Amino acid sequence: MEGRLANSWRLTVNDKNFIKTALLSEIRIDGRKPFEFRKISIKFGREDGSSEVQLGQTRVMGMVTAQLVQPYRDRPKEGILSIFTEFSPMADPSFEPGRPGELAVELGRIVDRGLRESRAVDTESLCILAGKFVWAIRIDLHILDNGGNLVDAANIAALAALLTFRRPECSLGGEDGQEVIVHPPEIREPLPLTVHHLPIAISFGFFSNESILVIDPTHNEEAVMGGRMTTTVNANGDICAIQKSGGEGVPRRVIMQCLQLATSKAASITKQIKDAVEVFNTERALRKIKRHPTSTGDDVREKQN
Amino acid sequence: MEYVSPEGLRLDGRRPMEMRQLRAEIGTVAKANGSAVFEMGNTKVIAAVYGPREVQNRSQQINDQALVRCEYSMANFSTGDRMRKPKGDRRSTEISLVIRQTMEACILTHLMPRSQIDIFVQVLQADGGTRSACINAATLALADAGIPMRDIVTSCSAGYLNSTPLLDLNYIEDSAGGPDVTVGILPKLDKVTLLQMDAKLPVDIFENVMGLAIEGCKAIANYIREVLLENTKQLEYRRGL
């Protein structure tokens, strides 16, 4: 219940009407076109598995950690992937401290469904000893600033964090071969996760009059719009998840149109994430190299040519 | 595992495009303003609606529309493995939210400002498609309570297993890990209000599966209309008109 209306209360009736009327002539208050995404910037922390995504004014931090646990009894050979969301009251006055509210739960579930049900992360490779030890990957998503469309930003943050995360390598040892030895990162290079594809969440906002459709709604547009739909698609054109929980009804044709738009956007976002991860990985590799003041990398490259 | 036999029959003997048997009963909770039981095969759901009534928590009152609240719960005995689930886990919080927003979209909330409508749904028997059954039961209960609505909302699920689109999945088919599309429509306006889907599916197949689910919704809408009409006739009869 909490926070449902806080957003719409803050806007005056005039403000709302202004947004609506502007949209009728395909103008959005931040100057974007209806099907234009806001600028995404992806930053990484110094440690593996942490990311910070900025989508317009929305800021989300993702953090991935891993722990060795006993697997679920019905899935003894699979690792565990879980997502936790943290809506800090700092990000938006309508977020209340304490237990996660409905919004936080919904966001977590959408990201979770996109990643898990589509088997984006290979959980079987997280198994160390069947029935005894598997890696439990925990993704923490912290909302730092709410500028609208938290789901998409959180999803990108989760993906970016997953792609840069590395778990320590371990091997079986001991007398009976049942003992797990976790190798510290200094001794053996930690391993990245196996991520098969990147499910990208893309949200649409529907407005009550004349089926106006916008992509990536801002905070103010969210207060006005009658319904939202989040589609999670990957760059291969597969649909991984869809969430449209009530709200304004839309014809079937519009849904298919949204899916097409989402697929094309997903390709460019996937590229952005991959590029950012690549830059991080190169930096990470360079950090490892201990340079002597006399040797330079340039000589080697010239010789190869 | 084989979910569709070579003869084209499913595990419970249905054809791929066949729905489970529907049964609905109106007026099952005497105290409530409106109530209904809805069954889809072995899935059984009870819904009760209280309101429109005065807002209990004044701070939540809305001055130009009614406040809709919804609580979804699963009875402890509804599933095979009987375990005590914590109240308000993530799944039920999400389903409560989904049902609330779906019903909110069809209730004419602006006609009942400063009031509150409570919808309670409980799953008595779970055999797949509980979310759909809950929405159907809630629609019936709202109609029974005489709450003004734009249209009735009906919901149905469809899946895709063994490269066949299947209508109205039961528990075994649902837990097979294949795609599961739950659709909720406003049948008269022919608009989709609820759409949830998981697992991977190419766009063209998704369109077929969604189309199948929409057809299922329409069939349920016809059934619900019949039930409501029958119920109204009986009320009329009891009044002696």
UniProtKB/TrEMBL annotation, chain A:
Its main location: cytoplasm. GO terms for molecular function: mRNA 3'-UTR AU-rich region binding. CDD domains: RNase_PH_RRP45. It comes from the Eukaryota. Keywords: Cytoplasm, Nucleus, RNA-binding. Residues 36-168, 197-264 form the Exoribonuclease phosphorolytic domain. GO terms for biological process: exonucleolytic trimming to generate mature 3'-end of 5.8S rRNA from tricistronic rRNA transcript (SSU-rRNA, 5.8S rRNA, LSU-rRNA); nuclear mRNA surveillance; nuclear polyadenylation-dependent rRNA catabolic process; rRNA catabolic process; TRAMP-dependent tRNA surveillance pathway; U1 snRNA 3'-end processing; U4 snRNA 3'-end processing; U5 snRNA 3'-end processing. The keyword Cytoplasm applies. InterPro entries: ExoRNase_PH_dom1, ExoRNase_PH_dom2, ExoRNase_PH_dom2_sf, Exosome_comp_Rrp42_subfam, PNPase/RNase_PH_dom_sf, Ribosomal_Su5_D2-typ_SF, Rrp45. Pfam families: RNase_PH, RNase_PH_C. GO terms for cellular component: cytoplasmic exosome (RNase complex); nuclear exosome (RNase complex). It is found in: Cytoplasm; Nucleus. Belongs to the RNase PH family. This is Protein ECERIFERUM 7.
From TrEMBL, chain B:
GO terms for molecular function: RNA binding. One of its GO terms (biological process) is rRNA catabolic process. Keywords: Cytoplasm, Exosome. Pfam families: RNase_PH, RNase_PH_C. SUPFAM superfamilies: Ribonuclease PH domain 2-like (SSF55666), Ribosomal protein S5 domain 2-like (SSF54211). It is found in: Cytoplasm; Nucleus, Nucleolus. Its main location: cytoplasm. InterPro entries: ExoRNase_PH_dom1, ExoRNase_PH_dom2, ExoRNase_PH_dom2_sf, PNPase/RNase_PH_dom_sf, Ribosomal_Su5_D2-typ_SF, RNase_PH. Residues 18-148, 151-215 form the Exoribonuclease phosphorolytic domain. CDD domains: RNase_PH_RRP41. GO terms for cellular component: cytoplasmic exosome (RNase complex); nuclear exosome (RNase complex); nucleolus. Belongs to the RNase PH family. This is Uncharacterized protein. It comes from Gossypium stocksii. The lineage of its organism: Eukaryota, Viridiplantae, Streptophyta, Embryophyta, Tracheophyta.
